[in-house]
Amino acid sequence: MKLPFLYTKSSDTEEWFDLIFNRPLGYLWARLFNHFGVHPNTVTSLSIILGCRAAWFFHYDADTPKGLLLNIVGVLLFVWADIYDSADGQLARMSGKKSQLGRILDGAAGDFWFVCVYFAIAFRLCDKPIELLPHANISWGIWSFVLCAFSGFVCHAIQCRQSDYYRTIHLHFLDGTRLDRADAERQKYQQLSWRHDFIAKLFQWFYVRHTAGQERSTPHFQKLWHALRQRYPDGNLPDEIRHEFRRRSLPLMKYCNFITFNIRAFALYIAVLTDHPWFYPVFEIIVLSAVYFYLHWRHERLSREMHEIVITNF
Q1: Among 284, 5, 9, 307, which Cα is nearest to 150's?
Q2: What is the DSSP letter of 250?
Q3: Is the terminal CB of the chain with fewer CB neighbours within 10 Å at N or C?
Q4: Which pLDDT score, from 0 to 100, does residue 162 have?
Q5: pTM (two decimals)
Q6: What contacts 148, CB < 8 A, 6 or more positions away?
Q7: Lowest mean pLDDT, pick from 20-24, 145-149, 300-304
């Protein structure tokens, strides 16, 4: 259900926890920031600072009351950062202060948080015995960094990149939400100057790689996309196509939501507060990866079937 006073995207893609917690609190913060004329990019920057600061508390062991308290502080700061991450988007829609840099920065905020989280967990595990091998009496050592690097820079990166793409695709067919293309983003990158637009060009460089990775990973959807562009170059798709894609895509949104933020964050909180920090990267590598591969297979099958429908009937 979409609450009428919240600046949400769509009930199709909103997570239930966001609707009952992050969105309402983010809306209140957005109204406050809007009253004082604060720019959405400033709120995004604050969320990055809070999230990275929260990660610093996660390198403490939670096997003492003091250590547990520090980890609780980290969890609260992480929740606060997530509320600001909800507030910046609502503030942008509320105030009309939208920008390409803001969209890219907003999408990158969580990446900043979790890079710091992986470093914190790796350092925390470094001199600890590997609990998964209770009789081996072996410490994690350098393997804690290998584990967290694989979990973060491979599993997390792919899972969040693609789930964001699948949700944007769904919204594109639902209400015409813009679907950024790597070629167009590459042209924007080339028009920027390293000398005069250093920050914007740097973020645009990362965004080009982001969109290009999304497209490489979805060959059947790209085939569908090109077929639709050939038939409808103005982008005005028939309602039959839009409705059929939405109907088939909607059941997949729950898997997208599962591998994005909230489940991931809850797993992180459990890991650090129970003093088993290895649980988070292992959960990400095994459980979230399994959900991602299933989602990817389903979405590519959907795209292949929709392509056949378009070729045959339209």
Answers
A1: 284
A2: G
A3: N
A4: 95
A5: 0.89
A6: 118, 119, 121, 122, 125, 281
A7: 20-24
